[in-house]
Protein 1
Amino acid sequence: MGAGRVHAYGAAVGLIGDLLFGDPRRGHPVAAFGRAAGAVERVLWRDHRGWGALHTVVCAGGAVALGAVAARAVRTSAPAAVGLTAVATWAVVGGTSLAREAQAIGRALAAGDVDAARARLPRLCGRDPQALDADGIARAVVESVAENTSDAVVGALVWGAIGGVPGLLGFRAVNTLDAMVGHKSARYRCYGWASARLDDVAGWPGARLTAALAAVAGDDPRGAVTAWRADAAKHPSPNAGPVEASFAGALGVRLGGTLSYGGRVEHRPVLNGAGRGVETRDIERAVRLSRRVGWLALGVCVAARHIVKGRTS
């Protein structure tokens, strides 16, 4: 069995596994990586970019090396290689957990229980829930679903197609490091710089593919493309901008505006200003769009890897 088929079967089984089972409640490999990265940080932390870069190299490089060793160990057995790819794909994608959290908040809002929705929101994003009303919570959820479709699903599939199991593990390691140390707090402004920049680079292809597929799979393809072209560059994140703008146009809603993180108020540009305000019902629409984008991304990535491998073999 060729490498293209091994990857195709393994990635498909892994994505189906995520659909059926979601993330494990205990013992998740990403959580184990987070604990290991935290231990490395306790040894290396200095308020210096160089030490932060070393932290990034040790942690992300270790994940890539682990994937390479595992892939090499099963290279002579197609069933084992498919199984390894499936397990790695399941371990690094998080589309089902993303959908479940978003839908749980949507159900609370639909029942009029804004307090329950506020209590659950931190599981999905870092907004200050007490500063948000029902519509503000709904907007935060839709924005998080859009951004995490790229981070938790499409980006991983892209790097799996590029680098196999090492690519899958490396992408998730980089994304996790950014969540841990890549934010601009006093502790991590210098130390997390390398992780944040590497995450921007690693997330670039997945974000553009996510934006393109949202336009294809959404209710308003023209609106998605228009919002992407007009508003993506206004967003402070080079990767969240295209994704959120395309989702906004595809859903016909308006995203961005004033938000609060950790007591810090930010006034972000509006994405798809011609759209209407986000309502509770748009959470389910965003989840459905996210799922369609994820499966389309699998098809695109499998096809691209098969074509490339066919030309080089």
Protein 2
Amino acid sequence: MRSIWKGSIAFGLVNVPVKVYTATEDHDIKFHQVHAADGGRIKYERVCTVDGQPVQYADIDKAYESPEGDRVILTDEDFAKLPAAEKHEIPVLQFVPAEQIDPMLFDKSYFLEPDSTTPKAYVLLAKTLEHTDRVALVHFTLRQKTRLGALRVRDGVLVLQALLWPDEVRAVAFDKLDGVSEPRPQELQMAETLVDTLSDDFDPSQYVDEYQIELKKMLDEAIASGSGKVTRAPEKAAPEMDAEVVDLVAALQRSLEASGRSTGKAASGPAKAAKATKATTAAKKAPAKKTAAKKAPAKQTRKGA
């Protein structure tokens, strides 16, 4: 995992430095849109409605339109002036029982890793939340947006659960529910009996995404069969040797040749001359030794006479 944000939890006078990681990931198979006639990729361009020309992302600002139709254009410099843009602190607002938070408010989850050499304060906060059976309500800023969050513990690790603001949950009222009579006791009892027969502890490993499994199987079989729906990827060319590596190899080769130790090639220049000189010297010394060996017996014969 890669950290997406750094900050610190303000727990009273205790400061807990942390790194933030996205806790969940999407395993859905992604598809591209293609032209049905020839399979060409469909691309979308950012085009200005005034001049009809494509616009680079760096040249795009953000505009707000009021309900009355007034437009305000803000630049990156305008957003940078907001206090939330530079805020890297997660202040604890209060501690509340977990069951008091409506699951409807839960949004994206993040893992928090201690970002200090001595994570004692991190462990202290985690143990405190476990022992008190409480959740810490916090404020945090991510991607220039101030959010409400619930800080809890999962397997000894602090988890930051983003919460929706209360006004982000829609109020709902269905007319068809008005005036509906209450279930009869017999109906309620039978329904409760059915619930009992299906009751068990929650084990998420028992449930799998059958649609994604079958979709992946279909794609694998299509690729293996080489049907007309498959376009083979072009073969990758052998990677060329980096220019710097080529220069280095050439420099090493020249160094070896200069020292007379070039591999796989006959010695040349000074090296050949040096070998020839050694051979001539050895040849001259050899006969001298043989002559001395021949004279030795003659000397011994004269001594015996």
Protein 3
Amino acid sequence: MSAAPALRKPLAACCGALALAAALTACGGASGADPNAKEITVYSADGLKSENGDGFYDQVFKDFEKKTGIKVNYVESGSGAAVQRLARERANTKADVVVTLPPFIQQADGKGLLQVYRPKGADQVAAGDKSPTGKWTAIVNNYFCFVYNKKELAKAPATWHDLLDDRFAHKLQYSTPGVAGDGTAVLIKALHDFGGRGPAMKFLGRLQANNVGPSSSTGQLAPKTDKGELLVANGDVQMNFANMKSMPNQGIFFPAAAPGARPTTFALPYAAGLVKNAPHRANAEKFLDYLLSEPVQRQVSAIGGGFAARKDTRPTDPNAKALARLMAGVEVFQPDWNDIDKHLDSYVDAWKTATNS
């Protein structure tokens, strides 16, 4: 495992992403992009770019442009929103690469939004972390988690049921399932820990009494937790570990299903795919190769606070060691992503009914 310091925020892309998004949306009809232009456009889930400019993407984009002369135009959103946008733009494709979390990368594949490309180094990525048909591959491994405010709470909540306590009323928030990847992860963990849809939805219905309300992006919740506006929020290890330098009041935890049970989590990798009919396909392929190159994979921990996707990359930097300690004793389960992809809409609908959302 590997780790590293870097800020992860959805606010990271802020003005630049919004401005670019507006410009791209304004285009109509067939794409007028010059296929020979030295640029690519990346649609990505939040988390790998820092609002301070010292995140994983910040370094990767800068180094890639210096190495190749290809500029990266970056558009940030929630995982589900990125796929929805690709679908809307199907007849006028603007993005070259999409980076999103499961089950949304599978959803993009199922909607026919990706095309086959196996980046150099993909042979070193575990079979479960890449598409068997070559449509996508993990570039940064990661795990789902929750965070709490260490200043206000003497210790982390041990179980899901601890989150029902009155002290968390209007002080707990998780991002919206079906929109945010980490929000969807709340559903996945609940389904696993409670043993099925019925008991999971019953619990999430009870938890809604403490929930502040919807959030389209998980990264927005980290600074609120650090400031004490929230006491508990969902997140993921890469994002929250990377943020700790600037948000020292955050603590990472993994709630157990019941007292005495082991805490649980599951892998939630950032997966990248080549967009079908990408306007700058050759440039996009170079970028995907670069993301899986050994030097960049070593930066995943040292800069990005995440876990290298390549099996042959074994970082030993201080952050990698800290992440290994953080994950010690946590049971990692394997979701059935095909089942989740197939039934995601029904799971989200059940959640909406249970929570009156």
